[in-house]
């Protein structure tokens, strides 16, 4: 068994959304500064449970 992981929140974004955001910022001459792309959030425990269902042959942390 793997070690225990902290049940922190992870922010998830689809790479296609990031690419679209980059193009929009690049094409907008008024855009400046930093932008945050955030689509979903999930707790580590919930993410591990999803991965266990999808890929049961791997060893996961508790």
UniProtKB/TrEMBL annotation:
InterPro entries: NAD(P)-bd_dom_sf
Organism superkingdom: Eukaryota
Protein name: Uncharacterized protein
The species this protein was found in: Nymphaea colorata
Taxon lineage: Eukaryota, Viridiplantae, Streptophyta, Embryophyta, Tracheophyta
């Amino acid at each position: 068994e793997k070690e225990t992981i902290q049940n922190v929140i992870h922010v998830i974004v689809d790479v296609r959304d990031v690419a679209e955001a980059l193009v929009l910022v690049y094409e907008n001459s008024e855009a400046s500064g930093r932008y945050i792309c955030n689509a979903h959030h999930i707790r580590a425990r919930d993410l591990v449970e999803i991965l266990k269902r999808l890929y049961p042959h791997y060893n996961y942390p508790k």
